[in-house]
Amino acid sequence: MSNQPKPSSNPVQNNPVPQAQRPTPQAVPKPPQQPTIIDKLFEELQKRIKVTTRKDAPNRGTIIVDRSQLVEVAKILKELGFDHVKTVTGMDYPDEEKLEVIYHVSSYEHPEYSKVIVALRTTVSYRDPVVPSLYSIWESVWTGERETYEMFGIRFEGHPDLRRLFLPDDFEGIYPLRKEYKLKKEGIFIDEQQAE
C-alpha cells in the first residue's frame, strides 16, 4: 500500500492557479451617505457665520464660539427653529484657568430638530468669567444660567434676576462645582455598634 494521497476529483485543487494570475476581488462600492440633520444644520449655519462645528452623532452636534459670537449664533439657531434650551451648565479647566459654558439647545415645534440636541459652547477666563445672557433669545435659560452662576461663578450679563438659588446670599469662597472645591469631612457620625 502506498502512503501517497489520492488525487482529488476537484480540478482546481489538482491545478492550482498561481497567485499572480488569480483575479483580485473587487471592492463593492458603498452607496453615498445621505447628509444627516446635523450635517444640514451646520451647512446652513456656516453660510451665515463662520464657527467651529463638530458632529457627535447623527442627531447631536457641537458648536464652539467665541463669547463675542454667542448671542449672534443663538439668534441664528432660534431663526432656524431651535426654540428652547434644555440645560445650561459649566465646566472648569483649572490647568488652563478657563471656564466653559454649555447650552444644550433643541426644539419643540420643528419636526426634524425636535430629535436633535446641539451643544453651544463658549469659554471664559478665570479673570473675566462673564458671558452675555441668552435670556432675551430663550427664556428657558432662566434657571440654568442662575445655577451656573451660583456653582461656577460665571456671570451672565443681562440676566434679569441673577441671584443665588441654593447657596446663602452671603456665600464666600470657592464655587462648589469648581475642581478646587473640597468637601469638609467633619461631623460625620459613625455608629460603632452598626459598623460591626
Describe the 3D structure.
- The protein is of the alpha/beta class and 196 residues long.
- It has helices at 11-14, 37-48, 70-80, 142-152, 192-195, and strands at residues 52-57, 60-64, 84-93, 98-106, 117-125, 130-132, 155-157.
- Helix 4 (142-152) links the parallel strand 6 (130-132) and strand 7 (155-157).
- The radius of gyration is 29 Å and the shape is elongated.
How large a portion of the residues is in β-strands, by DSSP E?
Answer: 15-25%
Please provide the count of β strands: 7
- The helical percent reads 10-25%
Q: What is the strand arrangement across the widest sheet?
A: 1-2-5-4-3
The helix/strand class is alpha/beta
User: How large is the count of helical segments?
Assistant: 5
Radius of gyration: 29 Å
What is the CATH H-level superfamily?
NADH:ubiquinone oxidoreductase Nqo5 subunit
Judging by the overall fold, what is the CATH architecture? Answer: 2-Layer Sandwich
Tell me the major beta sheet: 5 strands, mixed
Termini separation comes to 81 Å
Could you give the order of the helices and strands? HHEEHEEEEHEH
Based on Cα principal axes, name the global outline: elongated
Number of domains: 1
CATH domain fold name: Beta Polymerase, domain 2
The overall average pLDDT, rounded, is 87
Instruction: Report the uncertain regions.
Output: none
User: Which CATH top level class fits?
Assistant: Alpha Beta
Topology:
Elements: H1 11-14, H2 37-48, E1 52-57, E2 60-64, H3 70-80, E3 84-93, E4 98-106, E5 117-125, E6 130-132, H4 142-152, E7 155-157, H5 192-195
Parallel strand pairs: 2-5, 6-7
Antiparallel strand pairs: 1-2, 3-4, 4-5
